[in-house]
Specification:
Helix content: 10-25%
Number of helices: 3
Strand order of the largest sheet: 1-3-4-5-2
Shape: elongated
Largest sheet: 5 strands, antiparallel
Radius of gyration: 16 Å
Number of strands: 5
Order of helices and strands: EHHEEEEH
Distance between the termini: 23 Å
């Protein structure tokens, strides 16, 4: 595992698994989104305050590479690094590892932007401070 700006441990719940007994591929996006929100909250970026100000953080692209499935009861960790992709876009590089053996589960790159009150891309100062070019 590499170094991360933020990590969060979680456990697979029974209802997240499909008929094959593994976590459904769509559930991994929920895990990744939850960790992004927790990271931003810990870093002082408040989604509800942004919404009140007319600022919306949006995903514009999601790339996920599935490496190994998780099953019910598996504990795992999600690591996250945030960086600037361009003047108006940022990327969350996220990896999921099964805790028992550190086996890679998912590698993801989630690209986002912020839309201002007029619906135009504009990165708020608080978010800008979290990123390095």
């Amino acid at each position: 595992m590499q170094q991360y700006q933020f990590t969060l441990e979680m456990t697979v719940r029974d209802y997240e698994c499909d008929m094959q007994g593994i976590v459904n591929n769509s559930v991994y996006q929920n895990y990744l989104e939850h960790v992004r929100h927790e990271y931003l909250k810990a870093a002082g970026v408040d989604f509800s305050e942004y919404t009140r100000r007319g600022i919306n953080l949006v995903v514009v692209r999601a790339e996920l590479d599935y490496k190994h499935p998780l099953t019910s009861g598996d504990s795992f960790v999600v690591g996250l690094n945030l960086c600037r992709e361009s003047p108006l876009r940022f990327a969350f590089y996220q990896n999921i590892y099964r805790l028992a053996d550190k086996k890679p589960v998912v590698n993801a790159k989630i690209i986002g932007t912020a839309l201002n009150q007029r619906g135009r891309p504009e990165i708020p100062a608080e978010l800008d401070r979290l990123m390095a070019l």
